[in-house]
Amino acid sequence: MEKEIDKAIETLKKGGIIIYPTDTIWGIGCDATNEKAVNKIYKLKKRLEKKTMIVLICKSNNINNFVKKVPPIAYDLIDSWEKPLTIIYNGAQNLAKNLIRDDKTVAIRVSKDEFSQKLIAKFGKPIVSTSANESGEPAPLFFKDIEQSILDGVDYIVDLYHNSMNDLKPSTIIKLERDGNFKIIRS
User: Fold this and answer.
1) Could you give the CA distance from residue 23 to residue 15 in angstroms, rounded to a whole number?
2) Which candidate among 62, 87, 88, 146 keeps its CA 20 to 30 Å from the CA of 179?
């Protein structure tokens, strides 16, 4: 696993994009602070920039590096939610501009996957996590389901778990409102 983490980090540091296993589905990722790298993913996925992508971090106490004011309920939700949980926060900061919506929101998930956690911790920056498919196509639960055009369009493919079954689905998405309430966007 360490060898794959090092190879992925080498790619991320050069502004490249990777395909990697996450705590949900197979993902395409890059340095979430590198606008050019993020743009490469939009082009590969044929995705409109107004449809933002998820940012993965390795620890909940890192959220405040990327969100101006984290509502206390966010930590309660992260700690108590059983499935992988993505939260949309107001007041995004310190990320690539093309990951932040016009209303200054950003979607962040604290990864619970060992590989992703170690990758992010060693890289020292958040990474993008978006499904390894073209926009509008089904998200790949299995490595074998990733389209060849996507595989050919990245700079590195993490060589782990290609023959494993991933029975997880995309994460639950919750939007935190300014008043402290939240609503479920995707369950």
Assistant:
1) 23
2) 62
Q: What pLDDT does 172 receive?
A: 86
- In this prediction, residue 183 carries a pLDDT of 85
Domains and CATH numbers, the chain: 2-186 (3.90.870.10)
C-alpha–C-alpha distance, residues 186 and 155, integer Å: 30
- Orientation of helix 2-13 relative to helix 114-123, angle to 10°: 50
Structure tokens at 14: 């050069």
- pLDDT lower than 70: segments of the chain: 163-169
**What one-character-per-residue DSSP string does 81-120 give?**
-SS-EEEEEESB-SS-GGGS-TTSEEEEEE---HHHHHHH
Instruction: Specify the pLDDT at position 35.
Output: 96
Beta partners for residue 175, in sequence order = 88, 183
The amino acid present at 183, given as its one-letter code, is: K
d(CA 55, CA 66): 10
Angle subtended at Cα 170 by Cα 167 and Cα 175, rounded to the nearest 5 degrees: 150
**Within a 10 A sphere around the Cβ of 136, how many other Cβ atoms?**
8
